[in-house]
Every structure is written in structure tokens, then in C-alpha cells.
Design a protein that fits this description.
The chain has 19 helices and five strands. With 452 residues, it is mainly α. Strand 4 and strand 5 form a beta hairpin.
């Protein structure tokens, strides 16, 4: 088994709910007797051919048939829960998870309604009636009490129930999360560990490749092995539901994939390539002229008035552009906002959003792992708003330490903090960063070359 343990997809939220759901599955596994007590486990199962039973849709998604079944599913829940919850946050992720479980269970119930007692008797057990089944059991000379049943009638009913089919496990919901991840972050990579034969392996693979590999395996099983509601069928039901949910969230704008979604990737216009002028470079714009800088003119120069009007027009244009940047920040489109601000600063270095938007821009770029741009705007906040900048200095120190590998620079940044005005949370974070920086320095770590 090749299991995902981490991803490089931009994550904007800590996976609190994913961790709680893994713990909940473990608790439910214990409650069902660790899959070693049929009487405890059976009420949790989703049984085929017994009509529509909504409670079973949820209980079956939290029940597992063994330790290997549970452990495998929980690793996959962690990997794909990271991606989905990381983009949505726990408040949206939790109801989405249960909605996926309910939709999966309802679909399985509907798709197996045909598996009635008569259907399995004739098509699975190849018998005409229950009486024929009971006669066959009696002819075998089996004592029902020896296998835990009071009578031949109970024994026959259990055989029919098992022949109709039942299911359990979180894999249907997890395949839904995998399909959502495929729609939202196909080009991002997952770190995979596992065994190849008896040799441990560890490698990176895109979510698209990893997901399509498992989808392909399940389609192959359905088409060329057994076309029924086995594990492959259950997985594909969850996958189809998840794919539809992922597309709806994307098209409705309920999730921001920053032009790295499946449809953008398939069109070839994803990420930076989604911009009309991507061929000019990350900061290229055909409507911007960087060399158009004003030349000082004498007061009595007849062209002075014209130059003044040009400067006024340029200033008005820059203000309009800054208004658009503010809108992008308000819409959480931090990468595009940073690009447009870069262009504006080339013409007017004083151009800057207000304090709150500068704060949001810097933190948004940090969350998007756009560290170069984040460092620029953290420094901007530090310089422009000295009385409000402790949080920015701490974040800058954290970036210098963990991303730039410059412990001395991180410490130098922290030494300028007004310690008496720090909240307890910021004070604790600053102490932690300082301790880590000093530890690195003691271990001989030298500052890397500055990138700015």
C-alpha cells in the first residue's frame, strides 16, 4: 500500500477536523468490538436490499472490518483531509464530510434496492424458495445451535442476509475527498510512503497521478473482474459524488484554487499561465511603461504645464489601480494583488494599501507560501506602521529562520520588539523563535545569503 502523509498544496487552515474524525473512527472501531464481535458490529453495517435506512449511511462510514482496514483508511483520510479541510476550514469541512457520507450511503441504498430476498435466492443462492434453502441445510445435517442460531429458520435468514450484501468503512467518503482534491489541486504533490515488495519507498507524486492510479485500478476491477457493489463499486460511488461536489464548489466560487484547478490545468491556462500576459514574465504588463519617469523642468518651461497634467493623470491612474488592488485583497486574491502592486511601485514607490489591507496581504501571501512577496510586504508594514508592527516583526523573524535559514537575522529582528506591549500569545511565539534561532547558532548554522 502506498499511503499519503503530506502535501505541498496551499493550506489555509489547520486540519483540526481531520484529526478529530480520525480519532472518532478509532473510537467507533473500539465501540464495535475491534471488529471481533459480530453482534456489536452488525447494527453499524449498511445492508443491501432492505430499503432506505438513513442512520446506516453514517454508522457504516465510521465502522471498519479490521485493524488493517482502519489504519489504511485513516492514512488516506489524513492525506486528502489535509487538502480539502486546508482549503475550506473545519466549519465547512465537517458538514461536507457528513454530507458526503450521507450521499454515499443513500446512493448505495438506491443501487442495491434490487437485492431482495427473492433476488438473492434465485440469482445468488440459485434456489427457488426459503423452504428449499432450509431443506438443503437440514440435508447437510447441520445443527443451527452449533453455529449460534436457535433454529433452521434463523440460520436460513442469516444466510440470505449475508448473500444480499452489506458494507462498512470510510473509504467511500475518502474516495469522495480524493476526487475533490483531484478537482481542486491536481498539479500539487503528495508525499507517499509505503512498501514496494518488501522495500520501503518514499517519493513525491502529483494528486492527479495518484488519484487516477486508484481510479483506474477500481474501474479495472469493476469492468474485468466483478461488476457489483464490492469495494471497487463502493469506492467509485464515493468518487463520482466527490467529483461532482468538487466541481460545484469550484464553479460557485466557494473555494479558491488560484487557477490551479483541474479545468485550468486541462486547458493549459493555470497559475501564472492563466494571465493573458504570462509570456512577458511574472510582473510583465503591456500597458505599463516603467521607463516613463518625469524629467525635472524649469518653471518657465512652456512644457511644464503639460508635464504637470501628465503627472496628475498618472497619479489618478495609479489611484484607480490601487483601488483595484484593494478589491483583490478584499477578495483574498493575494497573489494577483501582490503582482499588481509590484507594477504600481515601479512607477510610484509611495503606493501602498492601508494598514489593515497591508496586514491581510502579508499574512495571505505567507499562507499561500509566496515567501518572496510576503517578506516584501512584512517589511513594508514594519517600516510604515512602527507602532503596530510587533506581529510583523515576529512573522518576519519566523520567515527568516524557517524559510531563509538566517538565525542571526531573525534574532536581530526580534531584538527590536517592544516587549512590554506584546500579547501573551505573541510573546510566547517570539520566545520560541528566539530559542530556535539561538539553538541553530550554537550548532554552527551560518546565515544564508540574503535574497533581497
Amino acid at each position: 500500500m502506498l499511503i499519503p502523509i503530506n502535501t505541498d498544496a496551499p493550506l489555509y487552515h489547520f486540519p483540526y477536523a481531520t484529526i478529530v474524525l480520525i480519532f472518532a473512527n478509532i473510537v467507533c472501531f473500539a465501540a464495535t468490538g475491534f471488529a471481533m464481535n459480530d453482534h456489536l458490529l452488525e447494527p453499524w453495517l449498511l445492508e443491501y436490499g432492505n430499503g432506505i435506512n438513513p442512520l446506516e449511511w453514517i454508522t457504516a462510514a465510521f465502522a471498519h472490518g479490521g485493524f488493517g482496514h482502519l489504519i489504511g483508511n485513516m492514512f488516506f483520510l489524513w492525506g486528502f483531509g489535509l487538502v480539502v479541510e486546508g482549503k475550506l476550514g473545519w466549519r465547512v469541512f465537517v458538514p461536507l464530510y457528513f454530507a458526503l457520507a450521507a450521499a454515499w450511503g443513500a446512493s448505495v441504498d438506491v443501487l442495491t434496492l434490487h437485492r431482495t430476498d427473492n433476488y438473492v435466492l434465485q440469482n445468488v443462492l440459485e434456489m427457488e424458495s426459503v423452504d428449499e434453502l432450509k431443506r438443503g441445510l437440514e440435508a447437510e445435517g447441520l445443527d443451527p445451535k452449533e453455529v449460534g442460531f436457535e433454529s433452521t429458520d434463523e440460520f436460513a435468514a442469516e444466510i440470505i442476509s449475508r448473500a444480499k450484501g452489506r458494507c462498512l468503512g470510510a473509504s467511500g467518503v475518502i474516495f469522495g475527498l480524493m476526487a475533490i482534491s483531484l478537482v481542486w489541486a491536481p498539479k500539487n504533490e503528495m508525499h507517499i510512503v509505503g512498501l514496494l515488495a518488501i522495500r520501503p519507498v518514499s517519493f513525491e507524486v502529483t494528486i492527479m497521478t495518484y488519484s487516477l492510479w486508484y481510479v483506474g485500478l477500481n474501474i479495472f476491477e469493476l469492468l474485468f473482474w466483478k461488476f457489483e457493489m464490492g469495494s471497487a463499486g463502493l469506492h467509485m460511488v464515493g468518487g463520482v459524488i466527490g467529483f461532482a461536489v468538487g466541481v460545484v464548489f469550484l464553479k460557485k466560487g466557494w473555494v479558491d484554487c488560484e487557477k490551479w484547478d483541474l479545468f485550468s490545468v486541462m486547458s493549459g491556462k493555470y497559475g501564472r499561465f492563466a494571465e493573458k500576459d504570462w509570456g512577458l514574465g511574472a510582473h510583465g504588463r503591456p500597458d505599463k511603461v516603467y521607463g516613463d519617469l518625469p524629467i525635472p523642468e524649469a518653471a518657465d518651461d512652456p512644457g511644464a504645464e503639460t508635464a504637470s497634467r501628465a503627472r496628475t493623470a498618472r497619479k489618478a491612474k495609479n489611484q484607480k489601480a490601487l483601488s483595484h488592488v484593494n478589491q483583490l485583497i478584499d477578495q483574498n486574491d493575494y497573489l494577483t494583488a501582490a503582482d499588481e502592486l509590484f507594477n504600481l511601485r515601479l512607477q510610484d514607490e509611495t503606493t501602498c494599501p492601508d494598514m489593515e489591507r497591508t496586514r491581510r496581504l502579508a499574512t495571505g501571501l505567507l499562507q499561500a507560501q509566496a515567501f518572496d512577496e510576503a517578506e516584501l510586504w512584512l517589511q513594508e508594514f514594519i517600516d510604515r506602521f512602527p507602532e503596530e508592527n510587533p506581529w510583523a516583526r515576529i512573522r518576519m523573524a519566523q520567515l527568516l529562520l524557517t524559510v531563509r535559514h538566517r538565525p542571526n537575522a531573525a534574532l536581530k529582528n526580534l531584538k527590536q520588539l517592544p516587549v512590554e506591549n506584546l500579547s501573551e500569545q505573541l510573546r510566547a511565539l517570539a520566545k520560541k523563535i528566539a530559542a530556535s534561532a539561538k539553538e541553530q547558532i550554537r550548532n554552527g548554522v551560518q546565515d544564508a545569503e540574503a535574497e533581497w
